[in-house]
Amino acid sequence: MDKDIFLKVIDELCDEARAIAHTYFSEPPSMEQKADRTPVTQADRDIEVALVASIRRAFPNHTIVGEEFGEQSATSAQTSVERYTWIVDPVDGTGSFTVGNPLFGTLIGVLRNGAPWIGAVEMPILGERWLGAPAGSFLNGRKVATSTCDSLAKSKLCTTTPDIFDLQERRAFECVASQVALRRYGGDCYNYALLATGRVDLVIEAGLQPHDYLPLVPVIEAAGGIMTDWEGRPLRRHSDGHVIAAANEVLYRQALALLGG
């Protein structure tokens, strides 16, 4: 199937998510806690419902997996050789959203035969949109690339919060973080978008779910970066949630060695 069809639909989905996010952002709804103690709001649910409905209209024979409502099987059998699965994270950074921090986004990804193929990062309040596909990674239509930084000592490292790490993971993270020029906390999905643009060189995280990382892989890789688990394995739905993203292979190898991969 032609990737341009997917890109057109994804662009429309991002428009849809942006409109709903703006509706809620000025007066965010109350935050609730899910069973896993992560936050959720009505905005999360409304965005996911809208996006799933739009995807289903465009691709009735594709599987859809969303953060809030889980997997929804195709309404008709997939007839092509390729198997497509959509991944939707309606609000990545719900905590930021609820406190009025604009560094939250909507993540949309397409897996082809189980592997990340196309991805999008929509930052609705910032008015920024990344699309990653085999032809490249683009920010608001402009092609972007990761940095050429090839030394940990000169690199900039981001992670959302040190709270995501257990004791062993924190020690591994510190092995890398202690070697870099700058570390920054916060940002959620925006850290990965900045990496694709060359502003950040490394992102290291743990405890992520497939909807948190799978849409990001095409954005990073199409910009020239590398994104795997801490063992150097490709990211898939069954991955364990340990993620490293690096601007290039040289930097990636240095960081991965310190993580124990």
Automatic annotation (TrEMBL):
Mg(2+) binds at E67, D89, D92, D212. GO terms for molecular function: inositol monophosphate 1-phosphatase activity; metal ion binding. InterPro entries: Inositol_monoP_metal-BS, Inositol_monophosphatase-like. Keywords: Hydrolase, Magnesium, Metal-binding. Its cofactor is Mg(2+). It holds the Pfam family Inositol_P. One of its GO terms (biological process) is inositol metabolic process. Signal peptide: none annotated. Belongs to the inositol monophosphatase superfamily. PANTHER family: INOSITOL MONOPHOSPHATASE, INOSITOL-1-MONOPHOSPHATASE-RELATED. This is Histidinol-phosphatase. It comes from Paraburkholderia ginsengiterrae.
